Task: structure prediction
Amino acid sequence: MSRDDHTPDTKTTATFVHLFGLVSGFVGPAIVYYLTDDEYTKRNARNAFNWQVSFLLGIAALVGLAAVETFTSVLFGGLGIIALAFVIDPVLCLIASIRSRRGNAWGYGVALPVLR
Result:
């Protein structure tokens, strides 16, 4: 199916599934993934789910590393990286939303393939 073959409703649902991940984490995309029958929406929900799980695991790893570091390195290094991650997440979700609205299912690039 080419990117022009998707209906406007399908593109809208695929667009919002990425934004839904910003407020619901991986839960929202998982719900959409299991409830939809449309392959394009399912692909976008899978990409959003994989990204949100990867983001959560990355934040958990950064917090764990920050917890074992000294106060100085946590203050200047760990917290800055964690704050940067919370800036990157909405930016990537917005890019994915725009791409899905145009008919492309963007895969975030660095997301772990939890759902295939």
Notes: The first helix runs from residue 8 to 24. The mean pLDDT is 85. Helices lie at 8-24, 27-35, 39-68, 71-101.
